[in-house]
């Protein structure tokens, strides 16, 4: 269950990093950086709490924390590497980013509505 939550967060954050890395417009970069800082802080608090409460071995927890830590910088590096090819307003890139964001948000909504509440209130 926790792996599905992390998968949604990882895909979403890689896409955001890709958008940030590929952007050449200063008016787009400044709001994305400030939003990304707050976004990552609350994601880290939520996912980090879930990872700490999970009854996984240390190695599995360390791997999950590693992927959480490197996903956005990886997306930014990928965006910078693809910035010569990636056109942020082309129909194909808009469709690709839209599909990736939709799938990751769908995973997060599923986790929020189906998997997390029963596990939180199981003892009540």
Automatic annotation (TrEMBL):
<feature type="transmembrane region" description="Helical">
    <location>
        <begin position="94"/>
        <end position="113"/>
    </location>
</feature>
<dbReference type="GO" id="GO:0005886">
    <property type="term" value="C:plasma membrane"/>
</dbReference>
<dbReference type="InterPro" id="IPR003689">
    <property type="entry name" value="ZIP"/>
</dbReference>
<keyword id="KW-0812">Transmembrane</keyword>
<protein>
    <submittedName>
        <fullName>Uncharacterized protein</fullName>
    </submittedName>
</protein>
<dbReference type="Pfam" id="PF02535">
    <property type="entry name" value="Zip"/>
</dbReference>
<dbReference type="GO" id="GO:0005385">
    <property type="term" value="F:zinc ion transmembrane transporter activity"/>
</dbReference>
<feature type="transmembrane region" description="Helical">
    <location>
        <begin position="62"/>
        <end position="82"/>
    </location>
</feature>
<keyword id="KW-1133">Transmembrane helix</keyword>
<keyword id="KW-0472">Membrane</keyword>
